[in-house]
């Protein structure tokens, strides 16, 4: 990949301490100023003071390692090609981003709900609701993953409210699109090192589909975020911090005042493995993202106009667009009628 920047002025990443929200009006006002700038000027930041302990994160990383250490047959028993809901295991090389192969394997997990097959005339995105696939040989993974989804949903809910307040909007404006029927998503990811053929796309440049992503990464590094100079900048691991990116719905919500952050992962060198656990804070599938009332709305530039990646205000549509693109084997097997002929 090209265009990687080594510009030192970009090496200081904003660090946001969420615990400041509970430390009185002055601390909260300072938090809001920092959050406003981090979200508007940079588009991503490191989140600390979130209340998730090191014991909790190491337990999750431990179960992640144990999942990828299972015999391949145990992982392939959960192949997402068998799930019309895009849940389960994707083997290395089966996922595509920007039309090219990603060199990572992963387990996709969502809210645990029964399938809701769309009736004629209903939106196709209801396919995204359905059961997960769990490894029989590692029953504790289910508890850990569903527990992490609950834990991070509440951190993300607090963070979103502070972020909305920080830009002068009603903090609870989007509360109704979350709640019981929200559609959070978790991935357990392994980057198995270099593909050996000269490509270094761990995952290609993309934006996430929802409101906020809270990423737990190990110490290896390789995540890069595109900044205002157009170049990709390393996001070095910070112990105890989650990397937060803004997703496409926040861009839609603010008419481009906040931008969804374009990011990618460069494969680790040689046989080095990297593990990460992105958590995606997504609303209900049938939620429409109403425009956010806030004082900067009139100055907002509008959403990014990329014909290859239209942004949809209806969350389910926005996610389905991405899943069909990223998982062509699942799409071809279960959803051929949804694919636009090339
Ligand atoms: O693994 C990472 O650091 C980032 C993963 C990511 O961007 C994604 O899965 O959407
Ligand atoms: Fe991402």
TrEMBL record:
Gene3D superfamilies referenced in this protein's UniProt entry, alphabetically: B-lactam Antibiotic, Isopenicillin N Synthase, Chain
GO biological process: antibiotic biosynthetic process
Pathway named in the protein's UniProt entry: Antibiotic biosynthesis
GO molecular function, one term: oxidoreductase activity
InterPro entries for this protein: DIOX_N, IPNS-like_FE2OG_OXY, IPNS-like_sf, Iron_ascorbate_oxido_reductase, Oxoglu/Fe-dep_dioxygenase_dom
Protein's name in the database: 2-oxobutyrate oxidase
Keywords: Antibiotic biosynthesis, Iron, Metal-binding, Oxidoreductase
Short name of one Pfam family: 2OG-FeII_Oxy
Coiled-coil ranges per UniProt: none
Record PANTHER family: 2-OXOGLUTARATE (2OG) AND FE(II)-DEPENDENT OXYGENASE SUPERFAMILY PROTEIN-RELATED (PTHR47990)
Family under the similarity heading: Belongs to the iron/ascorbate-dependent oxidoreductase family.
Residue ranges of domain Fe2OG dioxygenase in the record: 181-283
